[in-house]
What does this fold into?
Amino acid sequence: MTLRLRATILTACLGFASAAGAQEANPLDAIPETMPFATPYGEPISLARAQAAIAAAIGEARNRGWALNVAVVDSGANLVAFSRMDGAQLASIAIAQHKARAAATYRRPTKAFEEGIQQKDYKYILTLDDVIASRGGIPLIENGKLIGAIGCSGGAGSQDEAACMVGAATINR
It folds into this structure.
């Protein structure tokens, strides 16, 4: 082999090696201009409004033939009201409450955690206290302020979320 051919092959091999070793930018290194999920806290939701949100979620579930557990917490993630539909899965009692608490505590729908882990591979989410990476927890926002959250469990995540959205719509206008 000629010296020139050897040099060309070596240069090509080094180019491939450096391209293979190059790392992609970590999206978590990006610094947002504003704070994400920075909804200010408002007055805690009242019992009457919590029960109205639960009634709306249960009405949606009943219309679709689903048996769900539904919980509403206040802006401090404290349980305000809870209902278990006849036949709803018993294990989902705690899960509905967990979804509501996580949505209030982190001021975002629990679907954000699900997407972060499932689609974006943000494993760090698994290290956060009291996270639940399953849709069905929705913050309750009134006049731009977080007053609580609703959580549903007992069905598929999409079913839980659909019922929660109806319950949340009684507040989030």
